[in-house]
């Protein structure tokens, strides 16, 4: 495992931004025209956000962040990729939300320093974020420190069980309890081509128990843990599309959880 994981991951994500911004997967023209980027269950689980301050950790190009802003939240997005933050700021301006959305360049572990001790009503983190972090308890402590008293942490992630499945989505091929960092050198991102130039990346597998325990250890009270039978993209060829941004196993076939969400509150 490389000691330069942060540098490799930042370079890799900087390189992805141009590819993602031009992709059909992110569909920035559709988003500018009003398309929502949240999963259908998210607004229901989190509740009313109008008039509340919301911090989105590891926000990438800001579409989820700005989807909450469209619902009335005063949002701050934080990401370690300066390229992603520049795209998010431009997107906010394009859709007329620059006055209600700011974006900050920072590694998530340094978020409290980057935000000068500011506290938020809601700390939100979205899909595909946690696998890039080696120290989950540290992440949870940072997230908890950014919450105002009584504030809510809302986390939505791909279910860690999906990391065990082979490419066909029907067979278990990996060890659920293998937490060692894995170095990958792959020329493409999940949206397809063109090829990247910064191809090395480092990821970690965290079990569902690891995640819940980290939040509890940071002093947060877990109120809800929901496992979802849908995901946002056709990760496995067996999945079928059921809406614009939802895919699931076909009816009549055994299912596994594809995403999960956690709502937790600050107790002090």
Automatic annotation (TrEMBL):
- Which keywords, in A-to-Z order, does the entry hold? Methyltransferase, Transferase
Name the record gives this protein: Class I SAM-dependent methyltransferase
Q: Which PANTHER family match?
A: METHYLTRANSFERASE, METHYLTRANSFERASE DOMAIN-CONTAINING PROTEIN
Q: Which InterPro entries match?
A: Methyltransf_25 (IPR041698), SAM-dependent_MTases_sf (IPR029063)
Q: What Pfam families would the database entry show?
A: Methyltransf_25
Q: Where is the Methyltransferase domain?
A: 55-151
A single Gene Ontology MF term assigned here is:
methyltransferase activity
Species this chain originates from: Streptomyces litchfieldiae
Offer one example of a GO biological process linked to this entry: methylation
| E.C. number | 2.1.1.-
